[in-house]
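Document type: protein sequence-to-structure record

Subject area: structural biology

Format: plain text, a pair of labelled lines:
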Amino acid sequence: MKINELLPGQQPIKTTAGGRSATGVSFQDLLTKQLENVSASQAASPLVAGDEIKPASSTALRLDGLFITEDILNNFELFGAALANQQTKVADLEPFVSALEEETSALVALKADLPDSDPLAALLDRVAAAAYVETAKYRRGDYAG
């Protein structure tokens, strides 16, 4: 089914062989211009001795925090499925716990770089606390019996 059939009243755009619309503008040209503008504005100057290294942007920190949080939540699901399986031995839980410990320490280190007023910092703190509790329960032997 064509999109034009779904949207009544929309005028079809005629394109030429090169992908240009009747107005002479193509998506590829617009995309190329945008990428050139971004590349030009992000051109990096080389570091010189004595230059101060700036910390990673807040956006990058926030994305990293979200990715690590997602990894922890995925490991929680796998860990929970392993716990629910009666055939799983306690020693088989070790890879899940080790992964949770590594991700928790990465999350805590990343959280330290965020401002305390950032709402994501509170979420990262809660996720790290939950992961720490589960790994501590495993390490003290709660799942051995």
In short: Residues 58-139 form one domain. The first helix runs from residue 3 to 6.
